[in-house]
Here is the input.
Amino acid sequence: MVGLTHYLAYPFLLLTIVPSWSVLRNIIRALFNNARQIMQTIVLIIVIIYLYSVWGFQYLRESFVMENDVDNCSDLLNCFATSFSRGLRAFGGIGDALTANAVNHGSSEYWGRYWYDLTAFLIINGLLLCLLWGIIMDALSEMQRERNSIHQEFNSICFVCGINKFELETKGRGWKRHIQEEHSVADYMCYLIYIDEKTKTELNSLETYVKKRKDVHAVDFFPIGKAMSVREKEPARDSLGSAAGQNASTTGGNVRVEGIEELRGMIIEMREQIRDLKTHINGAPVAQVL
Ligand SMILES: [Zn+2]
Here is the structure.
């Protein structure tokens, strides 16, 4: 709409690349998250430059007469604008931008100019500007650390159940199979979208429950800390089969084997008792059916 009134608005459309690229989007977000710190530092820089402008306007006005005898400190605002612009852009601070030979070594203003140049460079360029860049760099590196942490977590912990990769590899059917088939994030997303698309009357009881919990932003319908493949494999090791023999080498395994043998003996004894009872009731031996 703005482009219809002025053609210079069209170049700003190039800024639409910012939300399109995730890296740029994250940089902007990192800067906005630290906007308070950045703004406070900038305000402090402006205040310090203003103080130096007052100093220069009061005592060093000859130094602000630069090329072509233009007076860049005709009033306090002009003095501040010159200090702000040229002082920040000059590598050695405002002292590099001012006229070098404005004061002689023997004059009374010499030491004033000396300390003006030196302290302005140390405080504004050496300390405050570095502090500002440091805050920005810290914000960006913090964002990078956060992204790496999320990336690492995403590749080592199941997004659905929260079970770690090691446990799934050793107790389950493998990490890749788990995240691609058993707890596929895409499948869960499709399921949630599917529930959203259905009308209330089309939902079965399970879907109704999930939809209700989802609507209140509860996630307790996810199998947190549970996975069928892990559950399936663990009892197998405790069964009467060969897995019991594998555990026999450990103390815990011996305890389980002894318990199983005791249980087996009890079952055999119960079979004998039932057989005797049937014999007694029928008056004749019965076929061994158990
Ligand atoms: Zn999982």
